[in-house]
Structure formats: C-alpha cells, structure tokens
Specification:
The protein has 377 residues and is mostly beta strands. The chain contains no helices and 29 strands. About 8% of the residues have low confidence.
C-alpha cells in the first residue's frame, strides 16, 4: 500500500486539521483508491513536511507557533515526536533538508528569516547551544549580527534583507500592503549552494552553507511585484521559480563562473490573471519535460513545457484542479494529487501519457485543510 503524509492547518491557523495525517492508495489499483485515513501525529498546523534523505524521520514546519518539529516513523501509519520542537521564526512555511542530512533550512514568511537547523546522526533537531533562550538563532535577520557576512552567532547580516526597490516612491506590494521581507522556500543547488526566495522583496538569494549558519553570496533581483514563491531544480541544472503575484515562471542559470542570473520568463498561462490568481506550488515530471503550477483563485493546474536545454519554458495546458485553493500538488503513478486547502479535500487528476498535460478529475477524498503532501518512505 502506497502512503503519503499530509500536512494541514489547525486551529491556530483557522483550520480543522489536528496533526499530520496519512493518505493511502491500494497497491496495484492506482490513485483512484486514494483515501484519507486520519491524523497519525498530533501537531499544531504542520503546514509543510520534509523527509530526511536516509532516515525514517519527517520534519514539520509548525507555521502558527513558528517552530520546527521532528517525527520518527514507528510503523506503517505511525509517527512519534523525536525530541522537542525548536524555534525558527514567524510563520515558518517551508523546509528543505540537505542531501547529506546534516541540516535543514527553514523559510519563515512572517519575519523573513532563513534558518539553518542542524541535525544529528539520528535525525534529531540540534538547537544552537550559543542561544539557549531561543534554542536556535542561526538565521537571516538573527540577533547579534556584528558585521557584514557571517556574524558571531552564525547569522547573515540583516542588511542583506534590504529592499532592492526601496527607492521606488510606491512602497506597496501588489496587494496594496507595505513591502516587507517574506522568505518562502529553499532549494539545494547542484553546486552545493542554497537558493531561497523572498516573496516580499522579489529576490532569489544564493547562500553558501557554513559551519553554523548560512553565508550570503549575492541576490538575483526579479521584476518588481513578481513575488517569487516556490522553486524546482531541473535535471539540466536550471532553476525554475514560480511567482505568486505576477503569475509567471522565471528560469535562472549559472554562468561559467557559477554566478546565477535570470535567463527567461513566461506567464504560467495566457488566461491566468494577476490580482485574481495566485500560483502556489511548482513541481515537475520525473523526466523534467513538464512543469506543473497550482493556481489559487481560478483553482487550476497550469502545465508548462521545458524547451531547449532547460533554459526556456512555455505554457502547455490549463486544467481544473478539482479543489478550492490548490495549495500543493505532486506527481504520482501517472496522476497529479492536488491538496485543496479551502475545500478540505484532495483530488486526483489524470495526466496524458504522451504530453504530460493534466486532464479530468478522476477522484476526490476528504481531508482537513491539506497544505502539503509528502510520499512516505
């Protein structure tokens, strides 16, 4: 039986989820047998989940409490807490685990923090011993920064968070709110560095991991008001970034000196409308030929075809997501599983075998405010 862990919003984020849930698919019968089997690990709003690369350990971003928690699998459908949660930052919304399993990177929407949290040999979270009160402050915008670059507590210089469009007299984002930093996702790049998005400041930051923190290399500035949200590292080595505000997909590439830069951009779809639609998750097919962007508002899935050597992307198709507010999705067994946060359900869309385009909704199952789907090891 194939299983998926399900993250969701609980009462502290105005949702009905009561912890990490589990989805199950009957072996050999395909995703139309998908069913939600209930919560298996109580946790407050585990909105994003991440798997350790070698251990049966799952990490959860507890968005409402601003913490990260670790859980060890103890059975086919059981998770138990692995140590105590550690503080990350306000509205921590994304986790990415290093390929060697030595640390994870937490992105915090509320205060813009990008936090490096160490992991021990058993997969437990390792708080920074130099900051007992908060348990961990190896972060962007962390306290105690004393000079540019890496500070004494492993934090990057807070001045790195400057708005690149600060001179613009209209200091509002596309929603009419003041522009502030909103870290939203992290991705490990082929050369060992780390890319993070800042949705509020229209930036992709490139970091080098250090012994106790992250050192900022530089920033790639995207068009003002675009709102970079999530990313996919393509097999070609390119980095694809979907934007929440402008409804676009930008492609970044590294030059011969290893410096990343913007090389192309395209709307996720010709009929998706900025101000009404808000792309969320970005995923890819196994071969990397097709990208999928979930679009909240019109509640659709936009498919895009990757062209050339990965440097160009063009719209392919647009399909009904089958749910309200498609917060997350993933490709599984020739289908696309879509988490509908506001409709409290998960849908299954068919994918065309030849083109990869999403098609009709084949199945739905109820689930409480689902925000993330993670295949169980």
């Amino acid at each position: 039986m194939t299983r998926f862990w399900v993250g969701g919003y609980g009462v502290d984020m105005d949702g009905p989820a009561d912890g990490i849930g589990v989805l199950a698919v009957d072996e050999g019968r395909g995703p139309t047998t998908l069913a939600y089997r209930g919560a298996v690990a109580p946790a407050p709003s585990p909105s994003w989940l991440a798997q350790h690369p070698t251990l049966d350990v799952v990490y959860a971003a507890l968005e409402g409490s601003g913490e990260v928690a670790a859980f060890a699998r103890t059975g086919e459908r059981a998770l138990r807490p692995l140590g105590r949660p550690v503080a990350a930052g306000q509205y921590v919304c994304h986790l990415a685990v290093a390929p060697d399993g030595r640390f994870l990177v937490a992105s915090c929407y509320g205060d813009g923090r990008v936090v490096r949290i160490g992991l021990d040999a058993a997969g437990r979270l390792v708080p920074d011993a130099r900051d007992k009160a908060a348990e961990l402050r190896a972060a962007l915008f962390g306290e105690g920064s004393d000079e540019a670059g890496e500070s004494g507590d492993g934090a990057a210089d807070p001045m790195a968070a400057a708005d690149p469009y600060a001179s613009d007299p209209n200091r509002l984002d596309p929603n009419g709110d003041p522009r502030v930093s909103h870290a939203h996702a992290a991705a490990f790049l082929p050369d060992g560095r780390i890319a993070t998005t800042d949705l509020g400041y229209d930036l992709v930051r490139i970091w080098r991991p250090a012994a106790s923190g992250l050192t900022l290399d530089y920033e790639v500035v995207l068009p003002r008001g675009s709102g970079p949200r999530h990313m996919v590292v393509h097999p070609s080595g390119h980095l694809h970034v979907v934007t929440e505000y402008s409804c676009e997909l930008f492609t970044l590439a590294a030059d011969r000196e290893g410096r990343w830069e913007l090389v192309s951009g395209t709307p996720v779809s010709a009929i998706v409308t900025p101000g009404h639609d808000y792309p969320a998750e970005l995923s890819r097919s196994r071969d990397g030929e097709t990208l999928y962007a979930g679009v909240r508002g019109s509640n659709t899935i936009a498919a895009l075809r990757v062209r050339g050597s990965g440097e160009r992307v063009e719209p392919l198709a647009l399909a009904d997501a089958g749910v309200d507010w498609p917060r997350h999705h993933l490709v599984h067994d020739g289908a696309l599983l879509v988490a509908g946060q506001r409709s409290n359900e998960i849908s299954v869309l068919e994918l065309d075998d030849r083109t990869g385009a999403p098609g009709r909704v084949r199945h739905r199952t109820p689930a409480p405010a689902p925000t993330h789907l993670l295949p169980a090891r």
